[in-house]
Sequence to fold (274 residues):
Amino acid sequence: MTLIEKLKESSAFIRNRTGEEKTDIAIVLGSGLGDLADELEDALIIDYKDIPHFPVSTVPGHKGRLVIGELEGRRVLCMQGRFHFYEGWSMQECVYPVQVFRMMGIEKLFLTNAAGCVNTLWSAGDLMVISDHIKLALESPLRGSNPDELGPRFFDMSSTWSENARNTAKAAADRLGIGLREGVYMYFTGPQFETPAEIRAARILGADAVGMSTVPEAIAASHAGLETLGISCLTNMAAGILKQKLNHQEVLETGERVKASFSALVREIVRTWK
Ligand code: HPA
Fold:
């Protein structure tokens, strides 16, 4: 079976459940934001394991389901749980859902994540809209034969992070009185956190944040012509900046602390992103 055939089966399965009404925005909920999906009205829940060809996530705390419904008057589809390369999925598998969204006719993709803060002028707990990314990890989710139905073999990445969406996010943050940084997200595969030397290198290269998700999905989205927005919750200062060691607990705790304002910001963006 070809990738396109699989994508068509997956998207047809979801469309059969949701009906023909168009979904405005697909939202990938990162660590700490998963609860937002529970706030959708008239929600329809589809477990990943029921969708033909869909990968099934294994990370504790990641639920592994689509929640489709209304938020702030828009029709949204939330991924509660995403696929990470460090779990053992191929990059191609990590971006499979994004390609399904494209097959469903969804035009906007909102990626959220937890990330380490590289910029020493900022603090843990800050929110950052992604202006651009760096990925030096060699894999690409688009390696291999290119299904022309999805997008072109060689394509431009200079407008991957939509200016219109970023402006929407900044205006939304202003209206809510929530501080919003803007900067460059650098992808590391994980699952190990970075070394202090890697973080110094990232800073020299122009990164403001580091994380283990989001970039593969953004590449696939750019390929497929989706308008993409990314917001990171900077849950911890990256390795070597502070004396203390990094741990996943801190990531979860900061995520919890910031959850209310992050959710409010996501809602305001969903309401106004046109
Ligand atoms: N590094 C990579 N990914 C992360 C971090 C980090 O410091 N914090 C949360 N996700």
In short: Residues 237 and 243 are 10 Å apart (CA to CA). The chain is about 30% helix and 25% strand. The domain at 3-272 is CATH 3.40.50.1580 (Rossmann fold). Helices lie at 3-18, 91-94, 96-103, 163-176, 196-205, 215-224, 248-272.
